[in-house]
User: Which sequence fits this backbone?
């Protein structure tokens, strides 16, 4: 594999960098640099700027409204966003439900939802996990019973990231409790969160932030037109979505930025701390390079509509390195890790220290790291 970027790819990187430099709103840039949470309006505004340029949905083909980029261009684009730093386009919209609609949605669903997902007119949430169904997702109990041209949905979802900002939720429900395999009785529904019977309650996490929620579904009516693909075939679409989610969680550019910030603190530190931090940074950078090459190789060989167990490698290793980089930054920053205090209700206490806690969740969401090891053992190592 050729590990150098072509002159076209380097020119593309320059184009992306210049666009971000010229168009990222100053306040959004400041908050991203300080590791602060963004408001909904700031995220929507930036995604619409990207969408106006045709760049909001990096992995979508041209016919679906995406830029039709090569895997290398997609990699470069995200790398530049992470290192700028600028927000990624909302992954629930463009990396999760978008590709499922493109691969398995009907024409009406594509026309209705894809342009709005790209422009963030609809904010999507992921309604997969439940109190008793996380790692063992196929044990989910939320039920959907057919009633004329709709389904009546009852149950509880848990850990829905940003559901309090969302308009719609892509959801797994049980439609056949008697199916011979638990995976066989699951259906993929799109639920309008404004529907009667939907209640969203916040969960405040160890970093002090309100990011995740519980979602209660009490006799919620969902039209059949909001079902993806066939009834009882939702597990197939969910596996494809989870594979895309896991590939995206690696977020290599973000780890590069954490390491760069740690090195910045190291240069102001006295010996021997300075050398210790720089040595650890160099080791993390070497491992990160290996993950980056793996990501490029994987992106180049992904098949449309098919889950790829190799995404678990990226999720596992990418998150381990990001957490290690976050820890290094915490140590390198010392007391400065706690520099940014709570300013107003809209801003979480989101400094280096709370960022460190936020990163703990990355080894749990998208499927816990232990579960990724099980997937790799079974599907790649044949154990
Ligand atoms: C910050 C955050 C955001 C999230 N966002 C969303 C979201 O937007 N939408 C959504 O649907 N879900 C979301 N989740 C839920 C997430 O996918 C689940 O928490 C995750 O799948 C783990 O499930 P669980 O919490 O039920 O833990 P459990 O499944 O009970 O696992 C507990 C522990 O046991 C280990 N374990 C479980 N089974 C095995 C096994 N077979 N082998 C070895 N170890 C095992 C796990 O690794 C874990 O350490 C989010 C979670 C977090 C923390």
Assistant:
């Amino acid at each position: 594999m050729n590990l150098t970027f072509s002159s076209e790819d380097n020119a593309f990187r320059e184009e992306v960098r210049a666009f971000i430099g010229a168009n990222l709103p100053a306040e959004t840039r400041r908050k991203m640099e300080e590791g602060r949470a963004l408001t909904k309006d700031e995220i929507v505004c930036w995604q619409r700027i990207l969408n106006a340029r045709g760049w909001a949905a990096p992995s979508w083909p041209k016919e679906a409204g995406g830029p039709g980029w090569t895997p290398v261009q997609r990699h470069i684009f995200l790398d530049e966003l992470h290192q700028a730093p600028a927000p990624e386009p909302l992954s629930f919209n463009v990396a999760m439900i978008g590709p499922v609609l493109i691969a398995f949605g009907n024409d009406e669903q594509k026309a209705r939802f894809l342009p709005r997902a790209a422009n963030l007119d609809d904010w999507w949430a992921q309604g997969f996990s439940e109190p008793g169904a996380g790692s063992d997702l196929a044990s989910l109990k939320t039920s959907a019973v057919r009633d004329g041209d709709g389904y009546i949905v009852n149950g509880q979802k848990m850990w829905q990231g940003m559901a309090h900002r969302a308009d719609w939720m892509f959801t797994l429900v049980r439609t056949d409790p008697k199916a011979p395999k638990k995976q066989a009785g699951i259906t993929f529904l799109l639920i309008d969160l404004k529907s009667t019977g939907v209640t969203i309650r916040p969960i405040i996490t160890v970093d002090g932030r309100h990011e995740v929620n519980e979602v209660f579904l009490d006799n919620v009516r969902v039209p059949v037109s909001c079902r993806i693909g066939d009834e009882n075939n939702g597990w197939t679409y969910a596996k494809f979505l989870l594979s895309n989610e896991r590939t995206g969680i690696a977020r290599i550019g973000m780890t590069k930025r954490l390491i760069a910030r740690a090195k910045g603190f190291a240069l102001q530190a006295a010996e021997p701390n300075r050398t210790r931090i720089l040595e650890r940074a160099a080791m993390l950078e070497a491992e990160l390079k290996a993950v980056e090459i793996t990501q490029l190789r994987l992106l180049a060989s992904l098949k449309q509509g098919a889950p790829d167990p190799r995404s678990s490698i990226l999720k596992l290793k990418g998150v381990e390195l990001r957490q290690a980089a976050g820890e290094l930054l915490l140590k390198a920053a010392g007391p400065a890790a706690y520099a940014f205090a709570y300013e107003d209700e809209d801003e979480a206490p989101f400094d280096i220290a709370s960022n460190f806690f936020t990163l703990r969740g990355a080894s749990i969401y998208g499927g816990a790291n232990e579960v990724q090891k099980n997937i790799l053992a079974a599907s790649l190592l044949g154990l």
Q: What stands out?
A: The chain has three domains: 7-89, 124-232, 250-379. The chain has twelve helices and eight strands. The domain at 250-379 is CATH 1.20.140.10 (Butyryl-CoA Dehydrogenase, subunit A; domain 3).
